Amino acid sequence: MTSSHLSNNTLRSLSKGVKTPGYDRDKVAPGIVHLGVGAFHRAHQAVYVDDCLGAGETGWGIVGVSLRSADTRDALSPQDGLYTLAVRSSDSEQLRIIGSIGSMLVAPEDPATVLAALADPRTRIVTLTITEKAYLRAPGGGLDTAHPDIVGDLARPELPKTAHGFLAEALHRRRAAGIAPFTVLCCDNLPANGATLHRLMIEFAALRDADLARHIADEVAFPSSMVDRIVPATTDADRARIAIELGVADSWPVMTEPFRQWVIEDRFPAGRPAWEKFGVTMVEDVRPYEEMKLRLLNGAHSAIAYLGLLSGHETVDRAFAEPAIRQFVDALWAEAISTLPEDAGLDTSTYTAELAERFSNPALAHRTAQIANDGSQKLPQRIIASAIDCLEAGDEMVHLTLVVAAWIAACAARADTLPESHFTDPLDTALTPLLRQHLPANETVAAVFDLAGFAGDHAERQTLIELVAVHLVHLRRGGPTLAFAALGIGSEEA
């Protein structure tokens, strides 16, 4: 293993064939603060910004903020914020050094510095990838006002812990100083993510200051966006391989696929980079693209994850290669496609063909356990919404509900056929003891729906519970093989 590390000083010594930033990083000014600097952000939004910096738009450097862990800061700061993007197809790998993150902050260590960056007049956009659970929604979809972090942020606004608290306090300070508000761009997998975050922020601010709530409601832009790129977790083997290829060590390279997509509602009063020059689709309405992605890619990902785990598959490509799972996903897509808007010009045939190719990429080694995390927060928009739309339209629907049953069965399998902490969920404190009671399937599903708030008070809620319960009976008796057989899906060998 090489002893030298990736940094500004070692850029010139990297192996030939490695693409490096084509701009002077010393001339880049911060214009974007990003909350939630994880692997996805570094493989997606930061790459598009890097493209813009390379084209001379030097006012859009990124200040990265970790809301919880110092791991990313500790890995990237000694490397001057640089890291390797490894784009992997089934037969090749291309390396690129990304330089768009100029500095890294850890919110719990120094909230004052984070607030200063957010209040800086140069900051015109705040982007977020904090995962669904960090939006702290109650089962009904509104703000969880009883959450201790929300309560704490309202009591001590100068020392926030949540994204809500940081955004509200920064917008308050900017308003008091006569600085125009930044645009808030949500990049998480929430339905109508911009509008959803806007509503949550108004709810939060109203508990603190009615004038601030009106300011956020009337003056702050929250465009919606849809993001898409598969980003598996980086392994030690990846680090070792990348170090050999670079000629220097990189503490946290990012693995990803060639495909990437970003669709953004074009509402940026304070300005924005010319993202459209680098493949971003700027539109008036993101919703059709968002629904297609949530219901076809993310919905299938959840299905593959839970059915794959129950079938003993560690990665997406291996699970998708099982004929029964592949046949199931095709049928799942057919059900979900029927719920998409017909007048939006969506090419679902091409999209699902691309998804099948992406899911089959063995080079990514995308772990089913990684996708399985936080199912209670993901399934409402990925699966439950499609199922309700099918029921309302009177369309036949049996595959969508198996995904929900598979999630319940996979959660119950932890500490049994799966390791105890193989994946996690925000509801585990209540979910785990519930599942250990081994109640009849109908009672189990009804209790889980109550706990997770699935379907709310919708008229079709009981029908959904009954359909999920039938699948859960099959999964309990004979695993995915019996569940598939009940759907007419064969178990032929690959």
Automatic annotation (TrEMBL):
Keywords: NAD, Oxidoreductase. Pfam families: Mannitol_dh (PF01232), Mannitol_dh_C (PF08125). Its EC number is 1.1.1.-. Residues 1-13 have a biased composition (Polar residues). Residues 31-277 form the Mannitol dehydrogenase N-terminal domain. The lineage of its organism: Bacteria, Pseudomonadati, Pseudomonadota, Alphaproteobacteria, Hyphomicrobiales. InterPro entries: 6-PGluconate_DH-like_C_sf (IPR008927), 6PGD_dom2 (IPR013328), Mannitol_DH (IPR000669), Mannitol_DH/Oxidoreductase (IPR050988), Mannitol_DH_C (IPR013118), Mannitol_DH_CS (IPR023027), Mannitol_DH_N (IPR013131), NAD(P)-bd_dom_sf (IPR036291). This is Mannitol dehydrogenase family protein. GO terms for molecular function: oxidoreductase activity. It comes from Mesorhizobium shangrilense. PANTHER family: MANNITOL DEHYDROGENASE 2-RELATED, MANNITOL DEHYDROGENASE DSF1-RELATED. Residues 285-470 form the Mannitol dehydrogenase C-terminal domain. Residues 1-22 are annotated as: Disordered.
